[in-house]
From TrEMBL:
Annotated Aspartokinase ACT domain residues: 377-433
Naturally occurring in which organism (per UniProt): Paraprevotella xylaniphila YIT 11841
Keyword Membrane attached: no
GO biological process, one term: lysine biosynthetic process via diaminopimelate
Catalytic activity, reaction form: L-aspartate + ATP = 4-phospho-L-aspartate + ADP
Record keyword 4Fe-4S present: no
One term of GO molecular function: aspartate kinase activity
Keyword annotations of the record: ATP-binding, Kinase, Nucleotide-binding, Transferase
Family: Belongs to the aspartokinase family.
A Pfam family assignment: ACT_9
InterPro entries with a match to the protein in the record: AceGlu_kinase-like_sf (IPR036393), ACT-like_dom_sf (IPR045865), ACT_Aspartokinase (IPR054352)
Protein name, per record: aspartate kinase
Primary enzyme class: transferase
Length: 456
């Protein structure tokens, strides 16, 4: 069993491509994209309810129904749309009319907004029906159960699912995203930010061996040239390597998804929807020793040096510094220390730094270098045999290294350099470890976000 989860897709042409990404010869579950135009119109309905503008709601629902019919007709390239699902669509809109006519104190916002996902799923279901695919439409509110801890109750959900699909013979099952039921049997909608985690839970319930996320976001900050992008094909990393990449600041997948997939042995694939053959990352338990997989750079961090004034014992000095960092909830990326000195790569606002400095100055002197680059070399290697840190120091012999960290695991070596040397250092490391000849091509890695970048 394989699961395929799609991000927001807007155009007719993009929706028509979905079947080509799903192997129709085997059983799969497809978590469809959410359509923004449906979400916008459902929000208009919710606002009208909130403002007690009840007379406006029937026309809003009818307008949504008309637009849905037009969208399906264009999608199927047939004026009549998909006759096989017209009754199902009609039933959904009748249900929506009935729902908004309840007493206002019985209308739950999350249940109302779940119609966005239901209708999005129904559109994809209609298109697959039009293509004569053996497809079914599952209702997640019948089996995805939220427990008392506000998390998906895997055991109860699995039991409900077994009952639901025991006679299921469809090749493709369409499962609308984020829909659950709580302990009161009410339909609720998980937050949009948990969509990826929701898909991972679905993969565990179906005992899937693989979960593919099709994203519409650019997946790398490397050179956009075609020959560099082609190096993404069949790119594979382990769960531990993925954790190191996430810890380094690159938002690959949420950590909770990675942990859940690892516990159940589910391979995760993150694929660019518009270029799946050339931009796909697979996360698996299969180890590929002695390979450097990524060079991840976090920029705009600060290099903090704290020197003891000597009036505290070493253990007191270390304890007090950590206590101050804890009080200000300081994000610490790297740290090195001796009995009288601590160096850290952190993220601090100017205001927070001055407040910390006031406390630290009671027992230490403090200096800061702003906007440094923290570079992580990530892979699977034997620290004792590979001596990656020696290679890094040698490669960066002409670049002042402020800090270096290694040996805590077999997945990363990290260095800190000044801001003006960050891109040069990353390019040198990429050339030698990842085989991308940035220096000779005169192409520097582009920093993707304000705080992080990734090149593979």
């Amino acid at each position: 069993m394989k699961i395929y989860s799609f991000e927001t897709i807007t155009s007719i042409e993009d929706v028509r491509q979905i079947p080509s990404y799903v192997p129709l010869g085997e059983q799969v579950v497809l978590i469809p994209p959410s359509f923004p135009w449906i979400k916008d119109q459902m929000q208009d309905i919710a606002i009208s309810l909130y403002n007690f503008d009840l007379g406006k709601i029937p026309s809003l629902i009818d307008g949504l129904k008309t637009k849905t019919a037009e969208f399906i007709s264009r999608l199927a390239d047939a004026p009549e749309g998909c006759p096989a699902t017209s009754s199902v669509i009609e039933n959904l809109f009748q249900t929506l009319h009935s729902f908004v006519n309840r007493p206002l104190n019985q209308i739950k916002d999350k249940e109302l907004l779940s119609f966005t996902e239901r209708l999005s799923g129904l559109i994809i279901y209609s298109y697959f029906k039009h293509l004569k695919v053996n497809v079914s439409l599952l209702d997640p509110s019948l089996f995805v159960c939220i427990g008392s801890n506000s998390k998906i109750d895997t055991e109860k959900s699995a039991e409900c699912l077994r009952t639901l699909i025991q006679d299921q013979d469809a090749t493709v099952s369409i499962l609308p995203a984020r829909i659950c039921k709580n302990g009161l049997e009410e339909t609720i909608l998980m937050p949009a930010k948990l969509r990826t985690l929701y898909a991972t839970h679905i993969a565990t319930l179906f005992h899937a061996e693989e979960l593919t996320f099709y994203t519409t976001k650019q997946m790398s900050s490397a050179s956009p040239d075609e020959d560099v992008c082609s190096q993404f094909k069949d790119y594979t990393i382990t769960y531990n390597e993925a954790k190191s990449i996430i810890n380094a600041g690159f938002n690959l997948v949420p950590k909770a998804c990675l942990d859940l997939a690892g516990q159940h042995g589910i391979n995760l694939r993150i694929s660019n929807y518009y270029n799946p053959n050339k931009q796909t990352i697979t996360i698996t338990k299969t180890s590929t020793m002695n390979q450097i997989k990524a060079v991840v750079t976090r920029k705009n961090a600060d290099y903090l040096q704290i020197h003891s004034s000597g009036n505290l014992m070493p253990f007191q000095f270390l304890t007090k510094v950590m206590a101050v960092c804890g009080d200000f909830k300081t994000p610490i990326h790297l740290i090195s220390s001796s009995s009288v000195n601590i160096s850290m790569a952190v993220e601090l606002s100017s205001e927070t730094f001055h407040q910390m400095e006031n406390q630290l100055s009671q027992f230490a002197s403090v200096s800061v270098e702003k906007d440094i680059s923290v570079i992580h070399i990530i892979g699977q290697f034997d620290q004792e045999k590979e001596n990656v840190e020696v290679k890094v120091i040698d490669l960066l012999k002409d670049i002042p290294i402020l800090m270096i960290s290694y040996g805590s695991d077999n997945n990363s070596v990290s260095v800190v350099v000044s801001k003006d040397m960050g891109e040069k250092a990353q390019a040198i490391l990429m050339d030698n470890f990842a085989g991308q000849d940035f220096m000779k091509r005169n192409v520097a890695p582009r920093f993707r976000e304000a705080y992080s970048a990734m090149s593979i």
